[in-house]
Design brief:
The structure is a single chain. It contains 9 helices and 6 strands. By secondary structure, it is of the alpha+beta class. It has 3 domains: 41 residues; 94 residues, OB fold (Dihydrolipoamide Acetyltransferase, E2P), CATH 2.40.50; 48 residues, no CATH class.
Length: 216
Amino acid sequence: MLVCLFFQFPWKSARKVLAICGVFGFWFLFQTWQQTQASQNLVDSVERVRILPDTIKVNGDSLSFRGKAEGLTFQVYYKLQSEEEKEHFQALTDLHEIELEGKLSEPEGQRNFGGFDYQAYLKTQGIYQTLTIKSIQSLKKVSSWDIGENLSALRRRAVVWIKTHFPDPMRNYMTGLLLGHLDTDFEEMNELYSSLGIIHLFAFVGYAGGLFHGCL
């Protein structure tokens, strides 16, 4: 195939194509290496986790988000203790670090034939452990030089601003289509979007959002 490339196109064009392929190939190998390292360097416990703000989801008294600690990413779960705590996390936009007491475990795999394999899904996102928070000791605002973390905070600010300034279902359209953010409000209106024939658009942006976090 490479030989045909040289015969069919001028050397300069072929060289550009090879350079682009080389960059993507290197990126793919680097991502694979990172995932391999993460899967081999699991930890027994964590005491502090930095929240990725745009992954925050509040469903009733259940809070979930993705957090970073010791160079690893975790899927985190917590049962909210009060309405004030719930409102605080719903409005949270900046980078915060939680000091906590919690339990680490492996994600649940496929329960039955043809069922959803949550463990395999998280693996594609570079996540190999889940963290269930028993209690929060402190929550403090932090700063970071990490580009991915700052982009996460910026995306979260946009999501919260849209949800604050626009009514349903417009805000779900905007956060879903513009930012690729599909939360519990979207799930509640899933049938409406299906009847309108636009559910595939949300599926695409949701996939793009997953790729974004997989690259952080």
